[in-house]
Amino acid sequence: MALFDSLGKRVRNFDAFAKTMDDFKVRTKSGGVVSIVGYVIMSALFLSELKMYLSNRVETKLVVDNSRGEGMSIYLDIHFPKISCNLLGIDALDMTGDVQLEISHDLYKIRTDPSGEPIANQKKDRLEPKTSIRESKGKELEQDESYCGSCYGASAGCCNSCDEVKEAFEARGWMEINLNEIEQCVREGKMADNKLVAGEGCLVKGKVDVAKVAGNLHISPGHTFDFNGVQLHDNSAFEGNSLNLSHRINRLSYGDSFPGQKNPLDETDKTLKDDDPLGMHEYFVKIVPTTYKKASGEAISSNQYSVTEYFRQGEPTASGTVLPGVYFFYEMSPIKVEVTETRKPFLGFIVQLCAIIGGIFTVMGMIDASVYHGGKVIRKKLQLGKAD
Q1: What is the DSSP letter of 305?
Q2: Are 181 and 239 in contact (CB under 8 A)?
Q3: Order of strands across the sheet with 125-126?
Q4: How many of the other CB atoms lie within 10 Å of CB of 162?
């Protein structure tokens, strides 16, 4: 026991927090007020520090994008309130020469009423070519040997079939063709369903997978078909229909969503009058590759973008230089943004709390001592003044 008593006395010599007896402690009103204020400030700072610890900090840096051979998904949700679904076609092409016509994979069109609500009891139709070709069971349609069909200005020779008319248009470099006005195509049953359904709109929704290179995606009345490697657009949708290209872009994103992502074209509304001229509504998009790394270690590869708009007025032409519709021209930036979530270390949080508690106690102790001793000095001077 003597050994423990001796050790205890030696340990007491290291006590940096010497205590005073309760009989010598004085509690004052000013000390109580200062203590309450100190506790309030301490609680506020503690909650603020706790919030900062629980939330993630975001660090951003720019690097050169050295990715190669990657793909990209374009997510779109676009509503055309005054064009029925049977008229709309969607195509995509890029600088590599990859062409997607009448895209049908992972992309749907939904018939809507004038208010934008989906029409009940309908299926989500995939975007597919609407050209209905009559089967001839391998036999050519009978015709007079002296028959010489017109090439409709594309050639001075004879075009006796729908394919020969297309070949003449291809040789002439014309990109537009109206199948419903081509006698050979009508005779062979190669016509398009291009009758505008009154009171119906169309919601185009889904995604398109493209290469991560510059290209464009466009939605336009009429349908495009490939003929001998040349893309011809059937412009019969513009004949006899009063078209209005009003559209609302509910969502357009290039890649998966990530926290804090902002797409400039989301909720964009283009409302046009029925007598407004037709033309190309062009959106020029600059895409910035972005990698978002969560604090959990998960990484999301996506993209951000900026956009400018331009409207080019014009009716559909045979050369294909003007085809009314909604166009998204996009190109990639060589700079990549890396966004990283970081969380404050627990030890750093503890150190900060200790600093807050110790600092508040020290400052409030100094204020309390100043108030207490200052009050004593003032009271003594007042007593001396009364005595005199």
Answers
A1: E
A2: yes
A3: 125-126, 107-112, 201-211, 71-80, 247-254, 268-270
A4: 23
Task: Print burial letters for 169-183: b (CB count within 10 Å at least 16), e (below 16).
Answer: bbeeebbbbbbbebe
311-339, pLDDT tens digit by residue? 988 777 655 567 889 999 999 999 999 99
Backbone angle region of 153, left / alpha / beta, with phi > 0 → left and psi within -120 to 50 → alpha: left
CB atoms within 10 A of CB 323: 23
Place of tokens 């902002």: 262
Strand partners, 211: 71
- Phi, psi for 178 (deg, rounded to 5): -110, 100
Which pTM was predicted?
A: 0.65
Rounded CA-CA distance 281/300 in Å is: 31
Query: Is 115 buried (19+), middle (13-18) or exposed (0-12) by CB count in 10 A?
Result: exposed
Q: Residue 284 has which token pair?
A: 């020029």
